[in-house]
């Protein structure tokens, strides 16, 4: 009775074993998920923006937004005239301390580079357990509910922090902001030492 040669047996067995290759044992390639643009917001007239927290990379967009503002817009936001937004100030406004600050931006991703159309922020005063707010929406994006959206998010953030009050200074000529804050329940108080300026506040 004959026997199958061993060499043939092992040769056939090896043929059934897949060849090893570096690819079989290589680690899978990790693909980072796309960075979130933020929360999608649709304006009353159908335009689209994204709401998210401010980032250090927004410095250039912040400076471009400032360049689009009129002298009146700038005075209403900063309470005094400014010819340009210095790099040092833009750097400070985009590199915030999360423990004491919150800043939301509304980004227009339909253009490249993406443009900043609105910003709302608070600065926390720990000693008074309160926060000062500021809100700015570009004129061409006004009356679309964006200011109210930013204000409501800031109020919500203050409540999450356990603060007792949110407040800010507003020029009396800035009627849209005064009306918005009135609708949100803010109380207005005139500033005797600052003619033409009111302090508005909301107890939380």
Task: Describe this entry's structure for a reader.
It contains 7 helices and 8 strands; from the N terminus they run ααββαααβββαβαββ. It is α+β, with helices and mostly antiparallel strands. The protein has a single domain, classed as 3-Layer(aba) Sandwich (Aminopeptidase), CATH 3.40.630. It has an 8-stranded mixed beta sheet with strand order 1-2-3-4-5-6-8-7, with helices on both faces.
The first-level CATH class is given as: Alpha Beta
Number of strands: 8
What is the strand arrangement across the widest sheet?
1-2-3-4-5-6-8-7
Going by CATH, the homologous superfamily would be Gcn5-related N-acetyltransferase (GNAT)
Instruction: Give me the secondary-structure category.
Output: alpha+beta
Backbone CA Rg:
29 Å
Q: What is the global morphology?
A: globular
Mean pLDDT score: 84
Which stretches of 5+ consecutive residues score pLDDT under 50?
A: 4-16
> What's the helix-strand series?
HHEEHHHEEEHEHEE
What are the defining features of this structure?
single chain, 204 residues, alpha+beta, Aminopeptidase, eight-stranded mixed beta sheet, 7 helices, 27% strand
Outline:
The chain is an alpha+beta fold and 204 residues long. Helices cover 32% and strands 27% of the residues.
């Amino acid at each position: 009775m004959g026997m199958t040669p061993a060499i043939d047996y092992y040769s056939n067995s090896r043929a059934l074993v897949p060849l090893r290759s570096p690819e079989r044992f290589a680690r899978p390639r990790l693909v980072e998920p796309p960075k979130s643009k933020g929360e999608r917001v649709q304006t009353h007239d159908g335009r689209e923006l994204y709401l998210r927290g401010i980032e250090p990379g927004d410095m250039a967009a912040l400076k471009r937004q400032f360049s689009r503002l009129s002298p009146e817009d700038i005075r209403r936001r900063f309470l005094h005239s400014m010819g340009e937004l210095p790099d040092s100030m833009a750097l400070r406004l985009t590199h915030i301390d999360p423990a004491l600050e919150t800043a939301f931006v509304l980004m227009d991703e339909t253009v490249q580079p993406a443009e900043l159309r609105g910003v709302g922020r608070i600065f926390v005063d720990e000693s008074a357990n309160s926060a000062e707010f500021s809100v700015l929406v570009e004129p061409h994006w006004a009356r679309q509910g964006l200011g109210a959206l930013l204000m409501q998010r800031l109020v919500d953030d203050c409540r999450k922090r356990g603060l007792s009050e949110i407040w800010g200074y507003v020029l009396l000529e800035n009627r849209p902001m005064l009306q918005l804050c009135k609708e949100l329940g803010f109380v207005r108080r005139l500033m005797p030492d600052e003619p033409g300026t009111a302090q508005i506040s909301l107890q939380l």
